[in-house]
């Protein structure tokens, strides 16, 4: 581990975070019904609305109206990643700034027609993903997850693949004020993953070097270690394909168990993601060929070509094409 000068923030980046937090992700999949069954019967989310082709799934411990949106589609894609903004004025200011910078807006800010309503807009990021930002979304009645309940509290973070991560990281820094918390590197392949934060949590977004643009994984936070292990065990008993884990990463100091959903997306159970003292934190450059960087506990299966290939996912078929909903 080193804290040498490893990253120079973009001087044009906003002084403050443009996003308050991660809201939800949208997935388009060929087998909608099996996907919904997996997330409700195995993963621990609850269905809170559907029209038959789009289903909204919530985490019991989160005030967000939903954590995952599943849309029936012939093509598999990441429909969108949604973030929150402080208020309607922040939404308007961001849209104006992105427009001046030449970012491709899908639409102007307005009232959202999705559950919870709110005020927001969508745009394409530098790789062609659809990103949504919103404020004033109605909160959902939620509850404290009890001891022993092995269901997600909330959506923790999202990791995305791109063949040009340096450009993608610079895009998110410049336009939204994301800050780098840590970087994973390989002695021969160079820097491989950047962990980005938009609040004091170690990362809400991470950007990985991959062969094509795709979802790497989405991660869900559980109540604690016991609940995380119970959830991991439940999925193993159900026959869900495990990719990697259980273990504990060094970057973020969080636990991990990765599984494949029915349409081939990697999903993670985690807990105890690090909350940073931002006044004193300095990014680390971590060599993930060291076993303790990938897994401090030494309990997970080795990070190998099998694990890496599942994390590459299929090439995203929805780049620079806005989802219909």
From TrEMBL:
The VOC domain, residue ranges: 21-136, 154-272
InterPro entries, per database record: Glyas_Bleomycin-R_OHBP_Dase, Glyas_Fos-R_dOase_dom, GlyoxalaseI/FosfomycinResist, VOC_core
Signal sequence, renumbered to the chain: none
PANTHER family assigned to the protein according to its UniProt record, in alphabetical order: GLYOXALASE FAMILY PROTEIN (PTHR21366), METALLOTHIOL TRANSFERASE FOSB (PTHR21366:SF31)
Name of protein: VOC family protein
């Amino acid at each position: 581990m080193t804290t040498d000068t490893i990253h120079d923030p973009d001087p044009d980046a906003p002084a403050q975070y443009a996003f308050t937090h991660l809201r939800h992700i949208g997935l388009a999949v060929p087998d909608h019904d099996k996907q919904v069954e997996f997330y409700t019967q195995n993963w621990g989310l609850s269905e809170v609305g559907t029209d038959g082709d789009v289903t909204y799934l919530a985490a019991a411990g989160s005030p967000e109206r939903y954590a995952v949106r599943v849309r029936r589609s012939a093509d598999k894609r990441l429909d969108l990643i949604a973030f929150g903004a402080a208020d309607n004025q922040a939404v308007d200011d961001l849209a104006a700034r992105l427009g001046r910078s030449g970012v491709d807006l899908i639409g102007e800010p307005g009232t959202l027609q999705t559950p919870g309503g709110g005020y927001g807009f969508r745009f394409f990021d530098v790789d062609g993903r659809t990103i949504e930002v919103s404020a004033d979304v109605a909160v959902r009645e939620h509850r404290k997850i009890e001891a022993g309940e092995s269901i997600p509290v909330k959506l923790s973070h999202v990791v995305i693949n791109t063949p040009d991560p340096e450009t993608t990281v610079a895009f998110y820094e410049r336009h939204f004020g994301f800050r780098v918390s840590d970087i994973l590197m390989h002695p021969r392949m160079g820097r491989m993953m950047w962990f980005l934060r938009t609040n004091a949590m170690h990362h809400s977004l991470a950007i990985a070097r991959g062969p094509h643009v795709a979802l790497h994984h989405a991660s869900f936070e559980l109540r604690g270690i016991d609940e995380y292990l119970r959830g991991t065990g439940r999925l193993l008993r159900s026959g869900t394909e495990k990719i990697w884990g259980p273990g504990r990463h060094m970057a973020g100091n969080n636990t991990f168990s990765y599984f494949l959903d029915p349409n081939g997306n990697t999903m993670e159970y985690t807990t105890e993601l690090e909350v940073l003292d931002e006044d004193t934190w300095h990014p680390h450059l971590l060599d993930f060929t060291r076993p303790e960087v990938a897994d401090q506990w030494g309990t997970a299966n080795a990070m190998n070509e099998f694990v890496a290939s599942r994390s590459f996912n299929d090439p995203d078929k929805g780049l620079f094409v806005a989802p219909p909903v």
